[in-house]
Amino acid sequence: MREAIVNWYYASPSHPAIILTWAVIGLAMLTLVFPGNRRLARQIFAVAVLGFREGLRLKVLWTVAALALIPGLLAFFSDADGTHAGRAALILNYCLSTGELLGAMLIVLLSALSVAHEIESRIMHTFGTKPVPRWAILLGKALGFWAIDIAFLLGLTIFTAVLVRSVPSRPETRSSGSFTTTGTWDDLRRNALTTREYEAPDQIGGGDKMKMIKPGHAFTWRFEIDPEKTSEPIAIRFQISSTHTFASHIENLGIKIGYDGPAMPIYDQKLKVPQDRPFNLYIDKKDLSGAGTLAVTLTAAEARNAPSVVATARIGLADDGLTQNLAKAALLMALQGWVLALITTSWSGVLSFPVTVAMGLILVLGGEMSRHALELMAVHVSRAQEIGVDATRSGMQQEVSEQLRILLRLLPDFQAAGGPTVFVEGQRLSGWAVADAILMMGLVRGIAWALPGIYLFHRREVGR
Predict the structure, then answer these.
(1) How far is CA 356 from CA 14, 48, 132, 352, in A?
(2) Is the terminal CB of the chain with fewer CB neighbours within 10 Å at N or C?
(3) Contact call for residues 239 and 326 (beta carbons, < 8 A)
(4) Residues of the chain with pLDDT > 70: what percent?
(5) Phi and psi of 245, rounded to 5°?
(6) How many domains does the chain have?
(7) CA 412 to CA 449: how far, in whole Å?
(8) 118 and 214: one domain?
(9) Dihedral pair phi/psi, residue 251, rounded to 5°
(10) 143, 269, 389, 410 from 396: Cα distances, Å
(11) Number of Cβ atoms within 10 Å of the Cβ of 288
């Protein structure tokens, strides 16, 4: 029974289940516009407007907004690695990480300060005499502070996009490599800022496993392609190592890309490639003559003392551009703000200001620590199985690990769906994963943590 619960808890998100759940949530939200509930909706909106205006008057908001611009400007005027791609990645990393950190700090300070201050100054007593439910007061304030956070994140996202778009206006101090050309904005957008979904070849063409290529020998991966599925260049991603483990690069590696058969190859060169670091080669759509089987061949150098090569290849079709990825990143940061606004506002009615701030920091740090703890436990169990630890002991470790995972997953994990910066490394940020994160984090965990605070605030004597 317990194993079934664990398997259910960690099952991958089901698209129909997410659609059905969001449909139910949408119907529940529509009930607020029914004639009997319009008064309650107006009350919540009025409290939210008051919270929004109150937040705008606080100096902490404008201080945080000014501080949020500094890391992005420093990254823009820095040299990074000397290329446009490196500078753009640095700007995205700095700005989005700043948005996560300062956005969390802003929402915790606003929500914790407001209710606690109103109780101390007896302003809350006025609310207590009005026919407004206690939970509606807290929800309205949380929505108001969340609106401020959304405005902050929207401004930071636009600022980030402007900086990245301006990257080609400053010349590169080091020319881009032969793999990723980013000299112009079009090159930068296509080759560095567009994420792709990578697929392995079929089993006949090598599958997804690393292949050993001896000196002077070759290996070919085959991919079925359809150029009509994308308007962007097709990327071929390589991950290559060699028996010369101390070397940073591999010399004279032959790479040939072309259609299967006697046709002329699209790409045929001997290159110096990085070892143990993935890199891409891009094939423009104009170079593809149509649908068919694309053969990717690696040939190891035949020189004396040349190393054997271990390699794998994947094909990637364009998925999302910079605009879509920034929008998804902003959604994930807004999700963090909503969870913190809901929880800290709910608990600030029964806790003092310092304790509420400490609680918000514990939630942020606890979520980060829980994610890292889960990763470490997974590595530990995997390592124990690899070195042949006794099966009973390994099974016990795995069982304990799964139980701890359930306990730790009770904390909010603000890196859900990979986190706002996951696309900077070229990873695809799935829209379904974002929808699942909003559902599970924003509604299930956020409301679960807020309900005890709402209940205790309801029982507290304020304005009666």
Answers:
(1) 36, 20, 24, 6
(2) N
(3) no
(4) 77
(5) -65, -20
(6) 2
(7) 9
(8) no
(9) -90, 150
(10) 45, 52, 11, 22
(11) 18
Do 19 and 138 fall into the same domain?
yes
For residue 269, what is the DSSP state?
Answer: E
Mean pLDDT confidence for 344-372? 80
Are the CB atoms for 60 and 107 separated by under 8 Å?
no
Structure tokens at 262: 């006697």
Q: Residue 1 domain-assigned? A: no
Longest CA pairwise span in the chain (Å):
90
Q: Is residue 345 part of a domain?
A: yes
Model confidence pLDDT, tens digit, residues 79-122: 887 888 889 999 999 999 999 889 988 988 888 877 766 766 66
Which residues lie below 8 Å from residue 235, measured CB to CB, with a gap of 6+?
196, 198, 280, 281, 282, 283, 315, 316, 317
Q: What is the mean pLDDT of the chain?
A: 80
C-beta of residue 219 within 8 angstroms of C-beta of residue 213: yes
C-alpha 178/C-alpha 244 separation (Å) is: 23
What are 11-29's pLDDT values in tens digits? 444 566 566 667 777 776 6
Amino acid at 287: D
Give 249-307 pLDDT, tens digit per residue. 898 899 999 888 777 888 888 888 888 888 888 888 888 877 888 889 999 998 888 89
Radius of gyration of the chain (CA): 27
Give the confidence band of 374 by pLDDT, cuts at 50, 70, 90: low
Is the pTM higher than 0.90? The answer reads: no
Residue ranges making up the domain that contains 236: 196-320
Q: Are residues 364 and 302 in the same domain?
A: no
The answer to whether 393 touches 381, Cβ cutoff 8 Å, is no
Judged by phi (left if over 0) then psi (alpha if -120 to 50, else beta), residue 254 lies in: beta
Angle between helices 134-165 and 59-77 (to 10 degrees): 20
Average pLDDT, integer, range 299-321:
87
Token pair recorded at residue 264: 């002329």
> What's the pLDDT at 2?
38
3-class DSSP state of 222: strand
DSSP 274-331: ESSS-EEEEE-GGG--SSEEEEEEEE---STTPPPEEEEEEEEEEEE-HHHHHHHHHH
Nearest to 347 by CA among 442, 444, 454, 458: 454
